UniProtKB/TrEMBL annotation, chains A, B, C, D:
Domain Transglutaminase-like: 158-218
Biased composition annotated in UniProt, kind: Polar residues: 266-276
Keyword RNA-binding applies: no
InterPro entries noted in UniProt: Bact_transglu_N_2, Papain-like_cys_pep_sf, Transglutaminase-like
Keyword Hydrolase belongs to the record: yes
Disordered: region residues: 257-276
Protein name: Transglutaminase-like enzyme, putative cysteine protease
Species for this entry: Devosia enhydra
Amino acid sequence: MRFAIASSLDYQAFGPSTLILNIEAMREGQAIHSEAFSINPDIAHEDHVAETGNRYRRLLLGPGSYRITYTAEVETMPSHESPGDVPEVPVSQLPLAVLPYLFASRYCPSDQLARFAIRQFGQLPQGHERVTAICNWIYEHVDYLRGSSDTGTTAAETFAQRAGVCRDFAHLAISFCRALGIPARFVSAYGWQLDPPDFHAVFEAWLGNRWYVFDATRLSPVDGLVRIGVGRDAADTAFSTFFGAITPGPLSVSITPAGPADETRPWTTDAVSLSG
Amino acid sequence: MRFAIASSLDYQAFGPSTLILNIEAMREGQAIHSEAFSINPDIAHEDHVAETGNRYRRLLLGPGSYRITYTAEVETMPSHESPGDVPEVPVSQLPLAVLPYLFASRYCPSDQLARFAIRQFGQLPQGHERVTAICNWIYEHVDYLRGSSDTGTTAAETFAQRAGVCRDFAHLAISFCRALGIPARFVSAYGWQLDPPDFHAVFEAWLGNRWYVFDATRLSPVDGLVRIGVGRDAADTAFSTFFGAITPGPLSVSITPAGPADETRPWTTDAVSLSG
Amino acid sequence: MRFAIASSLDYQAFGPSTLILNIEAMREGQAIHSEAFSINPDIAHEDHVAETGNRYRRLLLGPGSYRITYTAEVETMPSHESPGDVPEVPVSQLPLAVLPYLFASRYCPSDQLARFAIRQFGQLPQGHERVTAICNWIYEHVDYLRGSSDTGTTAAETFAQRAGVCRDFAHLAISFCRALGIPARFVSAYGWQLDPPDFHAVFEAWLGNRWYVFDATRLSPVDGLVRIGVGRDAADTAFSTFFGAITPGPLSVSITPAGPADETRPWTTDAVSLSG
Amino acid sequence: MRFAIASSLDYQAFGPSTLILNIEAMREGQAIHSEAFSINPDIAHEDHVAETGNRYRRLLLGPGSYRITYTAEVETMPSHESPGDVPEVPVSQLPLAVLPYLFASRYCPSDQLARFAIRQFGQLPQGHERVTAICNWIYEHVDYLRGSSDTGTTAAETFAQRAGVCRDFAHLAISFCRALGIPARFVSAYGWQLDPPDFHAVFEAWLGNRWYVFDATRLSPVDGLVRIGVGRDAADTAFSTFFGAITPGPLSVSITPAGPADETRPWTTDAVSLSG
């Protein structure tokens, strides 16, 4: 599918400050037909593509007000498969490069949640459907509630408190997957139909021989995502990181279909991979 | 029932130290037919009965080794009722003196577990049976596992990690009760049939017009307890608190029926109150 | 000193709800010359004085909007002493009734902070001045910052994060005192000169043979407080606790001198007790 | 310097289990003159060098007892510089590839400790000496105490509790560095003179244009380390990770100089890099 995406971020710097942004669409698994990154006033910036495919932009700000704007037209190429055809991979056969996505991370203390994960999901049939079962459990047992968590909230706290926002849902799902031996990673994205519009957070699990995408919040169709960044958890995939005396202002995010209208299409129950 | 209880505690003090013990049977709801508290070498000590009925013994130790021994013959007077006859009390009608047992405490952060408690137990029929349902849930979902927790473990951690020992089971049950508006308190006790013998931890919930006792671990019959202390949680009911350079040594605890043998009697499913 | 105090609280109830308020001036150590508690619309309520002296008011609300108003003229009777004349009391000589104020509580995990407390304050001269040294340390090392904490924040978190509000300052000071063997309790109060006006939180330490008051925030003079409630920590002394579908609205609080004007008087450095 | 290193690990598997080991010396910055990895009974295994240079060995165990042995002779090539010649790098000029080492991780919640780090170390002269000042602060304020922490302990807990072991010291130092804008990573190593011998944990900070090694525990000279693995924190650098029904047994580790004896040489105060 083809999407027009845009984001706009304002910052006020009170002294020399460094701003690192990760708001641009990944190139992996997506075709970027056009894009524009601009900053007003216009200052030098530098870009970098990390090994994960995340695209970072670093700006050195002097005192003043800045508006950063990014727009792009991106074609995603979701692959659809039948969930029953997508198996789990025994740890003994995982590519060693995905092993780090089995380890506990800042917001995903999978060690602390292992006993529950194994009791609740350990006996389910393995494969894509088991990860869907995890998403369903979270959707049914955790309230999506703005203001119920903050930037320090871990998946263990979300599990106890039973409320959170999209990043908390993703952290909890990732923790359960890792506890079961399924590599899982955090994905930041532009999410079609997300209401109100904002940067979205979902997750991917390594199944078969690739990453499959899941959204335990059910707020955006998984084939309606334009991916920005991947990482262990939100600590790796902040859209904005800054150092120095700098204050963020309002943020706006949008995503709309840029191809033939497809608004009424039912949400897929296929296994979807966006990773190419 | 009549029980012979005994405990023996060893301490090594390396300088002037203060030791506060709470190992003697409460008088409330229990008849103490005989008892003896001794310390070897024999030093002065002072006792105090708190407003809760907990009996404290304070000793000022100089450097040296000490053995404290307590023995008693105690008759408990459990009242038995049919669980269906024991209602909850609306908060609007609770005696105001029991309100503090609705508040969060050191190990029972009932605020953090409220959403789950209300989802899981909020729609169940109210009364003694709802508290039994809480105990059953804990028994079924949390592993009793020595070494899985420590003296800092809160009920929110036990809930996430799904493992603990008797004090953790009691803290979790207390947290759920409080979140539902049921006053609940921690009880330390000599527990008949507890294996291996140790001080036991259970809890009481305020129902009808008194405290009813429950044991989510199912390790000791609730009418086989000789109560020592009650409080908000384990922070209030330590059997031993010390200040200064002092090291605890081995501990031994025992409880045996002192009346007509009754070892084979089935465990009760009655609503049991020990509080007189 | 004589103060006119007032508070006004709004609530919206959406069903039968129970509201428990603790906003009225304590009688212990303070003379209440006049007071009025009212609720509009006028509904029945019931009051209760806890063993601590805290005055609770319980209201059973039906659906609707309510405004609660409390006004009083209260004379505090602070005793002033020279700090050097106020000693600590060895644990071996403490009244056993104050021992619970040595134990860890919901927001005051004194066990977790003991090592630091002993390193930092353990060698200081004992007495009132040591508690003042604790307050000074907190004032100098922790930022008073609205929004930096929430109702779940413990003293261990405040210690690590080095920011908080009045209740966090009190929790941290209480934790340090308890770790050093000094009984300490939380005090909610009307605080003269507090800006902006709100319910204030300070603490008391047991020294000599009474409770002495301290304010690590330095936001209100310790002899300018009208005390409302005391307890282990904020979990015991909420000004408002509610059960049911009820939403709090805006709150207003005021305290002004009602006797001869004394606004320019320097803040005292005396040891002050308000507990009578 | 030339070292003979050895480690031996025992495992008991009760069913098919996967074991992933990271016990072999890194090749980056070290010359491996000889090495041998063996498992008894001999079963197939597979190796993998991660992008960090960590060397992983994966074994698929059937039920039974296994002993893994690794021995090597490794020459480290520490570079020594004067600390005053090793500057910090402004975030605006850091290689973007090291940025992930500025982010919070499982055990290093640098966000929670930022306020303290900036207050305590923010005004110190920048460079290698500032990181040494961090190490000195930790050495002076945190007790090295076996049993005071566990595998869930974060740097914020270590900071509050003021006790830990080598991994906790490294996590705390890493957190402070990151909070100050200095990339820092965890290093597992064979540590000469470590007593009792065990796997050791230290850390590296990115200064000038390379990683410099530090040990806040002062238990092993920084030029006496043979590095095994690097990562964000201990979650990335476990020497052993297992999946399945498997129980670890005793572990032995050794490191001795293999070149000319140099036991009496004073510990260096130079800035030391081991990363080549």
